[in-house]
């Protein structure tokens, strides 16, 4: 009876853990004494009134003290106190009342040697709130007092060490196994491999596997799983091959994981072989393997075989349906995925949150942003509450769509459902507000975040810097450092991008230097942000200078860099360099990038090579809206309205929805071709048929179309009926039309508004002086000139340039004359003489000076377009076309001369003026004399 006393004292003095205790492996309780007492106690031979005691512990135990009292009573008086049934009852009672250590002691004494009991004990232990660390505490105390444990107990202790990543205790257990010279069974070896794989790495686990004397099937399976858990896909697959060579059978879990490895590695052939193994061993009915096969084929982009496996599966469960649906979505077959989703519901399989999130994220990733919102509404109507993953996908879709009001609604939902404290959701909200230009709300969400990650900081800093609020961005950068968060390259790159897109090139370069001073290296994003900003702001030469610096630092360009450089080529009309970049795209496999292809279409169009633009466009398989728009714009600037409209019709046949840019391009093509009726048609239908609200740019195009067609009064009425205030572009379009048709009265009205809106724009004054000169109103010409002088407005130099042998030759009304001027004029006089024989007469109305007609003819000869074209004829050989760039609208005389030149010298001439392209060939122009 005295032998049981220590247990009684232990139970009566032990207090349950009411909160999680710090992790430790020594206790103040007499655990060892309890274990030793229990192990040494033998059943009494005398009859006992409690020997056949049967009780319901739920009725007998009302508190922890009652459990302890009954336990002590049974130990003292009962010969069957340690029966399995009674011990199970006491373990459950101790767990229920929170005395986890007492429960662990009893389990080690009565059940630890039986593998079958461990999982249920751990499950029950966790269910009542026990921490597995407490089991290790009991084990450590018992072990430190010299209690011997067999390999079964040590194996399960290793499993707990693996789960808790307790490397040191696990190493002690392994050392104990070695010191005691245990003959390790397969379960213990598996436990060791699992422990080393999770705590020390796969190399240590593989070493245990290699040192094993007998490689049982369980050991092979464990070795493969250990490698695959650590994402050693190739190693795991190789082990599986070796295992099959030895005819060792794999279990279903191993097969499913190896199939996952085939998907990760893109090993379709190996996956098919494993599929054959599954069929050979009649494992097809295993739903886990079926699901793994579907995923493997999906990851290898073979949706047809994935569907075959799915269709042959009889007992399809929810994971199986989710796998095939996610497969279709991952490969972009959104309609098929939705069809399967409907079939799943009709099959009485209820979708779960994973299914819905798969649909949401998949449609977002493939650009079906509006469908994301529709799926969310359907999800909610079906009674599913969006979780953080759902909300993140929807917020990203809202961001892309620019639906700020929808974003605010989702924000309200987030607050109502307590998701605003989720880091990913809060960061997505900040990003949504930033990209929808609501920096006030973004700052408010950011300020409410208790745990800000670097993504949230970067998003807000990027928002302020891209909007030009550099002081706020810098303050955030300093605050970020003060809170112990180190800025990364993304932080600095956002500042580089903000400065460069705001024309603060020096500051952007300063930020590049700051990156270097912080011990980081500017990457391709840093330099591309700088180059892209320069290209967007018209600093084309600087963009190429920074490209050279970038290459000097050994950084390779990416597709975004290429797109920005092509934009610079388009701005400078550098066709030769653009072709070199095109070759670079082909060599580096950038042609599959739709942004690069679109930039190439734009570059070729604006550099006077429409044929190459068409070739790039035709080869583009996945044409985006931007690529369609670029091609329509290309035809528009050449005045090829028929071709532009044809591309638009094909775009509609491809089910691509036009946007505002599409209609600007269409209206421009109508403007350059004088298609008044077509222009009205597209302007009227853009809102009613396509939901595109006309902007000031569309109204400006319509004013231009009406004015160029001679309907000047109608153009003025149209301006006065606009739902918005006319800007300088609208009045400029009217003034240009008045100059074309010589309408001084309406021209003066337009000029009055322009002088008020743009008092320092010399082009407006020049247009008005030209209009007065056409009417021989020289006093008014002098009046405008005097007004310009009084305001300090000067007309900039007119220039044209032509590229010959990779060198640009500039002809300007200011600066030095061309070194070969004499030869150029000699050839020009010769050409003019030949033209006059064919009927050419100089159009002296193009000279806005009050001088004699003979002097006007001399002035016409000095027009820079004529000089550039003539030099091109001298220095280039047929059949190479001549490409000339001019910064002002070509005059009618130069236009006529260019037509004659193309006829006399049998040369194609491409001339880009300040408005559009002219393609001269065989005495005709692509504009059909309408410009």
Automatic annotation (TrEMBL):
GO terms for biological process: RNA modification. PPR repeats lie at residues 317-351, 352-386, 453-487, 488-522, 523-557, 593-623, 624-658. GO terms for molecular function: RNA binding; zinc ion binding. The keyword DNA repair does not apply. Keywords: Repeat. Residues 839-931 form the DYW domain. Gene3D superfamilies: Tetratricopeptide repeat domain (1.25.40.10). This is Pentatricopeptide repeat-containing protein At4g01030, mitochondrial. It comes from Nicotiana sylvestris.
